[in-house]
Write the structure tokens for this entry.
Amino acid sequence: MTEPAESAELARIDPDETISLLQEMVQIPSPYFEEHELSEFVYDWLDSRDLDPEYHHVSEPKITEYEGDNVLARLEGSDPDAPTLLLNAHMDTVLLVEDWEEDPCSGRIEDGKLYGQGACDMKGGLAAVMVAFEALAESDVDLAGDIVLSAVVDEEGPYGLGTDRLIRDGYTDDYDAAIVTEPGPILAQEEDIDNPALLLGARGRFLYDIEVKGHAAHGSQPHKGTNAVVDAGKVADALSNLDVGSHPKLGDGSVCPLLLEGGSQTLSVPERAQLMVDRHVVLGETEEIVREQAEEAVAALDIESEVEIGFRESPDPGIKYGPYVTPEDHDLVTSLVGATESVAGVEPEFGYFASVGDFNYLGDRADLPTVIVGPDGENIHGAGEFVYTDEVVETARIVAEGAMRFVGSE
């Protein structure tokens, strides 16, 4: 464990410099698949501080034809037997929302809030891990274990290609745990928790891709055909009423139809329809169980259409958002609890993430104990998005001290 004097030294992360960095990054548009300029900025920021960044290329030619670059940096500790900690944050945002009444990348600061697309999700968290990483590098404390910074692309896109590529290229094989600085309480299952908070797990997600095939007929004689759109609606309703799993930490699973498409010709009974349904799952709900439940629900319907139940196509069969839970007594959790008490003067609240993200890849696929700790805000993914600037600074300090406590010092 880190000594208090060392903690106090590390906690002196400069608020003005931290928020200035955040503002600069918010002013660089970086919707998913368009992160190149921000990747260069992050690389140059690290390079100018002699933190030896490197690009990690991400290529997905099969579906998206995407080419981009993660930015990685590593602080090497003195003890090869000490743990290695990953600090992960994504550089991309959702596509710029049209309803903004100002420049969506203004970075305007007012009343302790910084506004802009991605300010909260998650450039605030990205700024926090960058200044935390710099503070750890400049500290007089000799780290025992390694600390790795990964600023990744395409978390907001359909496949999470940046962190997926870290895993598939073997980078995470020698990591022991991960901190992800996504916004916390606002996206937690629990609606009554506030920062400082540690989110220790998340539900998983499958996306049903269902084809419904009916029989075409003239629209004036619908009884002679089988309406695929009508039957797809019945399927959507049946799936909405599935018995979903429940978990004492992650809460209940959920089902939400997202898209129903079919029919286009005037006076023609629709022959085909496509249905997409979101399925959030908890521990124990596997792909096989999720598919079987949907098939049984469809079999119980009195419809004439043929229904084929599948899942959204992905670049690799391993790309899945599995649920995970990190134990409260894990060393990373206790390190972050101690850091929070030192930095904020209070014990953190525990919560669990309602949706999915790169933390699922790390916590489930890479099998890394993973904790989400990040600054909060409002209007995430929408017009008027903002992050609380004081929470960005607090997150940086908690991450820096928590990381040092976890990897140890000599």
Notes: The radius of gyration is 23 Å. The longest strand covers residues 66-75. Residues 1-5 have pLDDT under 50 and may be disordered. Residues 1 and 368 are 21 Å apart (CA to CA).
